[in-house]
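QA checklist item 7 of 12: single-chain prediction sanity check.
[x] sequence parsed
[x] length recorded as 111
[x] structure emitted
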Amino acid sequence: MRPVVLLVGKLPDVIRNVAVELEDLPIQWLGAHDRGEVIAQLEAEPNIRSVVVGAGLDDTVRGDLVGVIASRRPDLSIHFKDRASGSAGMAPFARRVVETEMLHWKVIDVA
């Protein structure tokens, strides 16, 4: 079973493009655009291993998401993309997150 990464962002095209651009990684990608969708994804998919949040969301929303995610899934790491790299920076950021955490997953899978 492939690990799942939840991508949270304002623009649906960004999330779709990230999944296409990173299809070489052994990851299943899920998307969410707001608080309600994040909650729905967290409740529906127990195999989520990490959350990547885009920079297009307002800081208040991003802060709220920390509480929402941590209260439902305290086991998840939450990564926030910087604003300076723009929407084009989402895929490279998500790749770095996944490649860094994949090393950890491999150790767990072997043990």
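[x] summary fact logged: The chain is about 50% helix and 20% strand.
[ ] second reviewer sign-off
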